[in-house]
Amino acid sequence: MRPITPVRSHLLAMVTYAALATWFCWPVAADPTHLALGHPGNDVWNHVWGYRWVASALLAGDVPVHTDLLGWPSGGALWFIDAFNVVLTLPVQLVAGPVAAYNASIWFNLWLCGVGAYVLALRVTGSTAGAWLAGVAYASTPQLLGQAYNGITETLAAGWLPLALAALREAVRDPRPRRGALAGVVVGITTIANWYYGLFAGMFFAGMLGRAASTWWGRSRWPRAALLRAAGTLVAGGLALALTAAVPFGLFAASMSADDALVSRDERFVWMTLLLHNMTDGVALFHPGRFYSPDLKAVFREDLIVVVYVGYALILPALAALVLARPRGVTRPWAVAAVAYLLFALGPFLYWGGDYVQIAGGWVPLPFLAFFKFFPMFSRISHAYRFVVGLTLALCVLAAWAVRAAGQRGWDPRTLAAVLGALRVVETFYASSAVLPLPVTEVRVPAALATLDGGAVLDLPVGVPVLARSSYLAGQLVHHQPVPYGLNDPTPPILYYNRYTQYLLELERSTVTMLPPTLPLLDLELGRAVLVDAGLRWIVLHTDAYPASQYPKVVAFLDLTATLHADADGVRIYRLDPDIAPIEGGAGEGVPSSAATDAAAAPPTSALPAADR
User: In the chain, which end has fewer C-beta atoms inside a 10 angstrom radius, N or C?
Assistant: First the structure.
């Protein structure tokens, strides 16, 4: 077989990963400005909203760290978690809008995953065929495609991680300040793209430093020039990292700890989320098919899926590399990295087959637990299963070693890489727990919502799953008015502590199909006046979201207490006028019958939301 020049090899790899990313993103090809990749019951709406909000702030010359559009009436501090990809795709958004920019970021990051793994594996193994396979395998990671299903775009920025590892490896193997600075910049970009991956890079760097130190430890004399060069490399890398990531990461951390934070992560919340919502089932790492544990749909009524399946088309070549690769020991660092990332991916306690494993009456602790308790960064990690990305990357490098070792034994490496790459893609598509083809969310906003101005907007019903309720944010893309909801938050307290909105919640929860014979007219009138004074002007009923038993009585109530503005395209819109006539109807200041329950007098304890911010 004729040899391929390095330039052609690199070009072939880039085209392959572009084709693979296009194939995964093909479901939105018909209308990428209105069809968004991801399930409509998940985080798609939050991210599309965030793309528009960050871009609008930047174009207005503002730093997007606070918004009045969410959490009405006070707003709050917010750092949009995918701000980095918003900046990268800003030209796309200026031309085609936030949905197209959101889709473009997914395509770009899937392509970059292939490119990054190719660069790293080529640096490590020197095999272009093996590096090509590593890129295909990494770009086809089921966990990342599961995150695309969930609409969580910042987790797809995993292509920066192998680029960071490649830069760090070069800086450690041949320390020079320039290489250190380059490594610092790439690690900084990795951190602001997704701080999980910045942490993964830092862990790998710690391992590389430990390995390098062990080789120097036995020397009786350390060359002064080498020590100075190593120190200069560390200093240059640290400065470059700080200049690249310190400000964005500081703004992110400050937004989480602010008194008016719209998204916060205290240690107790993270701990409960890990144990009750985001535990990693070890069986799911190796169980083919649509196996989800925990099953968030069954337990929390969420359409999010937790995908941690690794894939035998990747595991088996990686294991073969441990036996076949020469010289002995070249694969050891990657095998150690794979085991380390695997242990961290399992979370604080061993969870297997749908339950925590118990020995002597207690759960089995894992290394993640100690890091969670003693390292501040780990106390913010609510998704331990994301360490599967680090595990997968290490296995991809080992698979590249397997291709090189097979070539040294007379096999054709390109044919072997092509076969293994095809098996990896087929397994991901048909045998993994990722849902492919990816579903799409149609982002089309009723035209009537564009007519809303001059005040806050309350979308109803409230009683839908939290992530599904984020679809209301699509309306804000056109009406630009504040709303009381946040990102992935339970019902805003203001809706409970005003009698008018509280009564609307009571009507939602009641099983009776008609209004009660009496209404608390004075309470309702006063509550409405308070809302109007605070700036609430619009109530939008999303008719398709209401059960048939609830919709008529809510409409009857709003017909009595507000002014109908529009009724079309699946929404019924009411206006709360400052000078509206007093509420009429009912039998006076009666107390609602038992049919309209008063159970909403205080906010209920809700299930933990699948917040990913």
Answer: N
How far is the C-alpha of 556 from the C-alpha of 65, rounded, in Å?
41
Q: Look at residues 406, 520, 478 and name the one whose alpha carbon lies nearest to residue 129.
A: 406
Amino acid letter at 451?
A: T
| Cα–Cα distance for residue pair 372/379, rounded to 1 Å | 5
Measured distance CA(149)–CA(610) in Å, rounded: 14
Count CA within 13 A, CB hemisphere, residue 587. Answer: 8
Residue 321 backbone phi and psi in degrees, to 5 = -60, -35
Cα(8)–Cα(6) distance, integer angstroms: 5
396: tokens are 């991809």
Contact 380, 404 (CB under 8 A): no
Poorest-pLDDT segment among 203-207, 222-226, 285-289: 222-226
Q: What is the pTM (predicted TM-score) of this model?
A: 0.92
Q: 164-216 pLDDT, tens per residue?
A: 999 999 999 999 999 999 999 999 999 999 999 999 999 999 998 888 777 66
Closest residue by Cα to residue 117 from 179, 163, 157: 163
Q: 3-class secondary structure for 162-174?
A: HHHHHHHHHHHHC
DSSP for 230-286 reads HHHHHHHHHHHHHHHHHHHHHHHHHHHHSTTBSS---HHHHHHHHHHTS--BGGGGT
In this structure, what token pair is assigned to residue 556?
A: 């009857």
CB distance 420 to 133 below 8 Å? yes
